[in-house]
Structure formats: structure tokens, C-alpha cells
Amino acid sequence: MLLAVHAQHETPMYWRREFPGRPEEARSVRAFAAHLLAGFPELDDVLLVLDELAVNTMRHTRSGEDGGSFTVDISMDVAGVIVYVADQGGPTEPRVRSLADLAEGGRGLLTVDALAATWSWTGTPRGRTIRATFPCTEQRG
């Protein structure tokens, strides 16, 4: 007798939340992601990257001005996690600073570059989104 077994696919998960552009919201971003991604092998890296992106958003874009806000999107499937942080734009483009510039700060995107498998940004001075990916490195049973 031949039994038909249907492969079960895990449904991708997707969450979005808007945050006020206040410095204390970085803690809320970390709590939001930690709750959703509990058990993800690379959770510490995801949390650190989200913290850096949230802080950068509030420091370097209109999202950090009075009444500003930013949005965090998180998607997860069997391949891993992708995070997006969308801001309200600003006069400069996101970039990794050179080592010579680090004495004055600017470690945020360097940290993102070191911890995320990939990262990129898209947008204009009116609004941007930074994307960072974290593949699942642990075998699932």
C-alpha cells in the first residue's frame, strides 16, 4: 500500500508596527522583535541591528523630529528573518563610515554590516527603508 504524504510548508510570518520617533522607542522596538522572534538562533544579532537602525532613524531623519515616526517590518520563514526600518527621510543617505570617522561615532551601519548577512536601502530624501537579512543557521528538526 502506498501512502501519500503531503509536505507541510511553514507559512511565512509578517508583522508591522509604527513607533513614535522618540529615543526611548528603541527599547520598544527590541521588545517587539524579541517577543515575535523568540527562539530564532540569530535573535541577538537581529535585536542589535534593529536597535542601531532605530537609533539612526531618530538621529538622522525627520522621524526623530517632533511628531515623527518610523515603521518596523519583520518577516520570518524557514529561510530566516528580514527586518525593514522605514523612516520619514532626511538630507543624507545611509552609509557605512570609514574607520577614520569612527572616533566621532557612526558605528551604527558598521554594526549592521557586520551582523546582518546582507543589508541595503532604498528611497529618497522624503523617506527611506533599510533592509537587513538574517538567514537561519540552525537546522530544524
TrEMBL record:
Any GO MF annotation of the entry: ATP binding
Keyword Nucleotide-binding: yes
Lineage of origin: Bacteria, Bacillati, Actinomycetota, Actinomycetes, Streptosporangiales
Keyword set includes Nucleotide-binding: yes
Organism: Actinomadura monticuli
Signal peptide from the UniProt entry: none
Keyword terms: ATP-binding, Kinase, Nucleotide-binding, Serine/threonine-protein kinase, Transferase
Gene3D superfamilies tied to this protein: Histidine kinase-like ATPase, C-terminal domain
Name of the protein: ATP-binding protein
InterPro entries, alphabetized: Anti-sigma-factor_SerPK (IPR050267), HATPase_C_sf (IPR036890), HATPase_dom (IPR003594)
Superkingdom, taxonomy of origin: Bacteria
